[in-house]
Amino acid sequence: MSLSKEDIKKIVDSSYLEANHKFEYPPVCLEISGEYGKQIFATLGNFSTILAPPKVGKTTLTGVIAGVLLTGNQISKFISSLPENKRVVAWADTEQGKPECIKTIQSICSQTTGNKTEHPENLKFLSLRKYGKDIRLDVIEYIVYNTPNIGFLVIDGVRDLVSSINNEVEATIIADKLLKWSEDANIHILTILHQNKGDANARGHLGTELMNKAETVASLSRGDNNGTRTTIIEPKFTRHKEFEPFAFTIDDDGNVSETEIKQGYEPKSPKANELTFVEITAILKEAFSNGERYKFSTLQNKIHQVCHKNMFESFGMNKCSDLFKRLSSERYIIQKEGSTDWIFNQYPT
User: d(Cα 314, Cα 269) in Å, to the nearest integer?
Assistant: First the structure.
């Protein structure tokens, strides 16, 4: 789309910022309580992502979040802060069939109205599985801009808005739309990215784009507590202070109960090829905080120290070795001609 000079000038004029610019921090709409107080999970004007493999309770958990937002009541550790005039929650499901969608709705109804067939007026649930990706996008965009008092949108199956998770152009388009929709409508959008069983990080370009631009990224995994299957939720990336990992169980009626994370549990650390651009940049900025130059073994040890201290306690030397190979091959770190020292390349190609 080509813009006229007048249109570009309007964008430029509206985009200028100055030091004395006054602004309000985005309103918080969802928090997680913990031992050290409440931590922000979501604010209006942003989007977040939940990453999870099949059958770990992601849709049920999201239903709990919806119930919290619809009623303003705390459930488990989730606390709603949605303004009174933004209490409408929309849900676009792209994967489940209608019978499964109805079960999800009834679970939300049980939490909000006490009757699984009494639908809350402020819940707008759409089943979009039978439509193609372009129609799904058009429908979701219509909901964003034409639903009075909407404050929160769930997209259960964001992968179904692209033809391939490895299509860079489509991934960028989706991330840009999420940013635009959330800011234009002053809502929060929660996306759910399904992962392949046995490959918890098969996210492709779509997952990378979402992780780089989301306000909060949380991961779900399956645990076991004295023979009881549990779901563990932990922060993977957030612009705010990280919430404390916690676990919950779900009974046959969809009720959620908190449970302890088993003794000896450690948050999972990703593999070297699973780290995002944001995470890699953060690691290298600390490792090269003073513009240092490192020999191979010294840099590998430094990277291990940074990862172990700030990010992943179980990120061992083998993973650091794999990460070093990735950093070199993708030119995050380079050697100047005639030198054996490694330096941080802030503009990898």
Answer: 6
3-class DSSP state of 51? strand
Q: What dihedral do alpha carbons 169, 170, 174, 179 form, nearest 10°? A: 10
Beta bridge partners of 248: 231, 258
Q: What residues form DSSP beta bridges with 342?
A: 294, 335
Q: Are 63 and 76 in contact (CB under 8 A)?
A: no
Distance between CA 175 and CA 188 in Å, rounded?
Answer: 14
Reply yes or no on domain 25-259 having CATH 3.40.50.300: yes
Report pLDDT digits (tens) over 234-277.
Answer: 888 888 888 888 888 876 666 677 777 654 455 556 677 767 66
Instruction: Tokens for 70, please give them.
Output: 């619809």
Can you tell me the mean pLDDT for 143-160? Answer: 96
Residues 6+ apart with CB under 8 A from 325: 272
| Dihedral sign of CA atoms 260, 39, 84, 47 in order | negative
Q: What pLDDT score does 236 carry?
A: 86
Nearest to residue 305, comparing CAs of 289, 329, 328? 289
Tens of pLDDT, residue by residue over 81-119, are: 899 899 999 999 998 889 989 999 998 998 888 898 999
- Parse the chain into domains and list their residue ranges: 25-259, 272-344
**pLDDT at residue 297 in the model:** 85
CB-based contact 211:237 (threshold 8 Å): yes
Which pLDDT band, with edges at 50, 70 and 90, does 202 fall under? very low
Write the single-letter amino acid at 67: G
CATH code for the structural domain at 272-344: 1.10.10
Q: How many CB atoms lie within 10 A of CB 19?
A: 4
Structure tokens at 347: 């503009």
Which DSSP string do the residues of 37-85 spell out, in sequence order? EEEEEEETTEEEEEEE-TTSSHHHHHHHHHHHHHH---BTTEEE---GG
Length of the chain (residues)? 349
